[in-house]
Design goal:
This protein is an alpha+beta fold and 174 residues long. Helix content is 21%, strand content 27%. The chain has two domains: 92 residues, Alpha-Beta Complex (Homing Intron 3 (I-Ppo) Encoded Endonuclease, Chain A); 54 residues, 2-Layer Sandwich (GCC-box Binding Domain), CATH 3.30.730. The chain is built from four helices and ten strands, in the order H-E-E-E-E-E-H-E-E-H-E-E-E-H. The strands form four sheets. The protein has a three-stranded antiparallel β-sheet with strand order 3-4-5. It is elongated, with a radius of gyration of 20 Å. The two termini are 29 Å apart.
Length: 174
Amino acid sequence: MTVITFNEANEAFRFDAEAGRLFWKINRSKVKAGTEVGSVHHSGYRHTFLNKKTHQVHRIIWMMAYGEYPDGYIDHIDGNPLNNRIENLRVVSQKINTRNSSKKSSNTSGHIGVSWCKQVSKWRAQISTDAGRKHLGDFENIEDAVLARKNADSLNGYHENHGRQSKNTKGETA
């Protein structure tokens, strides 16, 4: 992980806390002072290049708000990778970060942790726990499987936003 110092960031960037955005303080070869920092990476997060290194903008914002580089993962609580307002960011472990992830595009049931099991012709609910993958049951109807998964989410420290519909790079529901 590439680290930028507070002084380097403060010399190069102006942080707009209300908007959760960074702007260049200095003119660069193709960018004028006052221009928003970075470009949106294919991952959906904004990145920038400084001192021959790539940096994630949300990590710089955290450092500029709190005076130190984040020690851990930065979780975008609402799932929008471009919403870098400080109240939407929190430092978490990888485990906690994955417990606030959006539903994968390959999901076919429409609900995280719920899938159709052909072998028993029922809806199966599962969850990943600290002890490993846990089978929550097989259900005649999808609503019961979803309820079992939601109850297990709260018991296992999953964020209330876990499994939400993913956001595109503009923060719109995809």
